[in-house]
Write a structure and sequence with these properties.
414 residues, alpha+beta, six-stranded mixed β-barrel, 13 helices, elongated
Length: 414
């Protein structure tokens, strides 16, 4: 019984391949919609997955006992506020956190800007991070060449800097940068060191395209402000991270004289919160990109239905002859449904190759060089399975129409 069923299925597929092979170009063009759809789904999902992996790698490299203190409440008075526009966090707050919170090991105040930097006849636009002297310890980021600025330089607002790897390459190439003077917003800064290379950040740009300077210098000389934009905090251990968060919140509420029950004018987030938020955002982006690409699969399915209806019309006499020699209604249904599924599966297989190739190709295009792509088995199986379902769904109606033809009328059809 099983052997006879398998033989019948094999024969049906053989007939389907033969029927599709009669007009190879039309079959290819019909499957083209599925090819593009599957390829687009795999490429788009690989971009989203790459962004997610990049963020996870970035957070993992910084450690799990990191907290971020930012000015302003995330959702004050029912309106989401921009952290960058808030001025409620002062330098003294950061110093108090370091001195009065037992669960805190290091802190690094942060003031960020973007500026044109110049060395000789070379210039480079990059981000400027004003940090504390403990920044390498807080961010778990080693200095590869030279040294980092110390606390005395921070207090003095010294005009010194440490370069990210990309900035060093763009301004100095193979030349030794240590001790040289660059200009940031026309202000001279002496280069003390170069940070160890960290690489791309999953589609969010290079982490090495930055210069660090003392935060006091950034506040007074570059920005002209009297507040800091955030504080990076490293707890003494991962186990103490929630304890450190509580200590910081209690201390800042006391310093800012916030009444019991009133909303904080600051936000403290730990690494788990940030990683969870980032992962949620990238997951949403992946679903959105995959859904947009999936629309082309539906369009491809409509194309298959259209061509199969044309095929049924062209082969009415053939259907009539098959019925006349004993073919049953379900045999005709199975034959045309198999042809639609074969078209979808072939399109899906070629589409997988196109999608994987597109994901690899993106890495070699300069515009997308910073974008990381990861082709996951789940995305391939999902796209291929969806293509097969499209073939069954859109092929059923033409197959049913063919199976319900009257044999006598079919034989008379001209």
């Amino acid at each position: 019984m099983i052997k006879r069923t398998l033989k019948h299925i094999g024969k049906t597929f053989k007939i389907a391949f033969r029927a599709l092979g009669r007009n190879k170009m039309r079959s290819f063009l019909t499957a083209l919609g599925i090819i593009i759809g599957v390829g687009a789904v795999i490429a788009m999902v690989s971009i989203g997955e790459g962004a997610k992996r990049g963020i996870e790698d970035r957070f993992a490299s910084m450690g799990t006992n990191l907290l971020f203190v930012m000015p302003g409440s995330q959702n004050a008075r029912g309106v989401r506020q921009s952290w960058g526009s808030m001025t409620t966090l002062k330098e003294d707050d950061a110093l108090a956190i370091e001195q009065q919170c037992p669960s805190v090991m290091y802190i690094s105040p942060s003031v960020n800007a973007r500026a044109q930097t110049v060395y000789g006849n070379k210039n480079w636009n990059t981000s400027i991070s004003g940090t504390g002297s403990r920044y390498p310890d807080v961010r778990n980021w080693d200095v590869e060449f030279g040294t980092y600025f110390d606390e005395a330089m921070v207090k003095a607002g010294a005009k010194v800097c440490v370069l990210g790897y990309d900035v060093k390459q763009n301004l100095f190439e193979s030349e030794d940068a240590i001790g040289k003077v660059i200009r940031i917003k026309k202000i001279p800064f002496r280069v003390l060191g170069v940070l160890k290379k960290r690489g791309e950040s999953g589609g969010f740009g290079s982490r090495d395209d930055m210069i660090t300077i003392p935060y006091t210098t950034a506040m007074r000389r570059l920005q002209g402000i009297d507040y800091i934009q955030s504080v990076d905090v490293r707890a003494v251990s991962s186990d103490k991270i929630h304890e450190a968060q509580t200590e910081i919140e209690e201390l800042l509420r006391l310093r800012h004289r916030i009444a019991p029950g009133a909303e904080d004018d600051f936000t403290v987030r730990n690494m788990s919160d940030v990683a969870e938020t980032a992962a949620s955002a990238t997951q949403m982006m992946t679903v959105l990109l995959g859904s947009i690409a999936g629309i082309s699969l539906l369009v491809g399915g409509i194309g298959i239905m259209n061509i199969m209806l044309v095929s049924v019309t062209e082969r009415i006499r053939e259907i009539g002859l098959r019925m006349a020699v004993g073919a049953r209604e379900k045999d005709i249904l199975l034959q045309f449904l198999t042809e639609a599924i074969v078209l979808s599966l072939l399109g899906g297989l070629i589409g997988i190759g196109v999608g994987v190739g597109a994901s690899k190709l993106l890495k070699n295009i300069k515009m997308f060089a910073s974008m990381k792509t990861v082709v996951s088995l789940n995305s391939v199986l999902l796209a291929f399975g969806f293509a097969a379902a499209i073939g069954i769904f859109f092929g059923f109606y033409p197959a049913r129409k063919a199976s319900r033809l009257d044999p006598i009328e079919a034989l008379r059809y001209e």
